[in-house]
Description:
The chain is an alpha+beta fold. It contains 14 helices and eight strands.
Amino acid sequence: MRPPRRFRFGPFVVSPASRVLVRGGDEVPLIPRYFDLLVLLLERRGEAVNRHAIRDAVWSDVVVSDGALSQAVRTLRRALGDDSREPSYIRTVARHGYRFVFAEVVEELDEGPLRAPAEPPAPVNVHVHVNVPVPDPSSAPPDPFASHLACLLDRAADADDQRAAAESLHALGTAEALRRLDRLPGHPRARAVLRDTRWDVPGAGAVPWLGQPGWPLTGAHLAALRLRRAARLVAARWAAAALGGAAAGVVGAVLGGLLLLQAPDSAAPRSLVLVLALVGGLVGGLGAAGVGAGLAAAEALVRSLRTLALTVMGALGGGLVGLVSSGLLRLAMADLFGHALPRVGGGIEGLVLGAAAGLGYGLATPRRSGGMATPHGSERGRAVLATALCCALAGLALTAAGGQLAGASLNAVARAFQGSQVTLTPLARLLGEREMGPLTRGVLGVGESALFAAGLVLGLTRRPR
């Protein structure tokens, strides 16, 4: 096993084992992810590390925007005293990423005290004229809170700079930052930024806002912050979830169509498999679009009570899509084909499946810090299985209560047209029933719901590039 190493450059020492950045004899506070970014750049010094590689290495468990990465680099530069225009340490590589450019980096065993090389002292003129003011050695050191509070209260400051200032205040002490902030001009907006960033700094204190001075404005600013971020992050997650659901619908429909072709007394043509695949993809995609939008919005907007938020918003998204889809189908049947629509799945089914998907996904991807989970490997597999199990149980309960999922709804619509070959009665006979009864409906409901959940979660957890 390789012994632990540390990096020494300029007046700094970085110890990955102790997770500290030291300047001289003093530790420079950094939040954990920013420290991980500094170590990554040091390990790959001289190499231009692209943004995607940085996100995969440092933010592997959550989706972040390019703005968050830029904010992290700005904070590192501030900690190192670097200048982005003439960088000594971290250089931006246009349209690519970042590179650590300081030439004299020493990699050594992580042993002994973490003391960096002393910075060269400022030149001292021994012939001091009597009228030259001499600094008072008893003067107080600069207040570490002051500059960060000033940035946080400056309405003209860049939003990413304000988030970096808020994270630094959390690292210095949340309670003291709030004590100094209260009742200063612009404090409601600053409190909103502090509350929104506390999830990104391990060990940060609570930032209450209800009942505090100016709390309505704080709430409004907090909602605006989260909505802006949600607009940037939700779109990619929603689209991936919809594609995953559509793919699951196609797979389920093709499997069902092939079984139908092999069933005894089946008169279905082979082309039916293609038709069922199109219908399955449409139904799965629409359902996953609704539920996925609810889940993605919950992850982007809600930082506490995450599983409850996922359950509620998944239910709302699924219910809304189910209600609208069944309404449009009812109009099409009545106006285009002159048939009254039989009982098919709609808002209730969408609501229950959406809630089950949100519950399973929330339980399988716990996050203390909020944000969008991106589980990998076995963790992703567990999320798929947990969500599929919850949705399978929900599908079984729905069919037992008389609900209609995709297969049963398709069978009901087909039976409304005399001579239709889409009826699923041959499948029921494979299971020992003359017509679609409780057993057939239950098996179809469990299979459809589990496949839907698997596609939804595989799409939702796909890391955007």
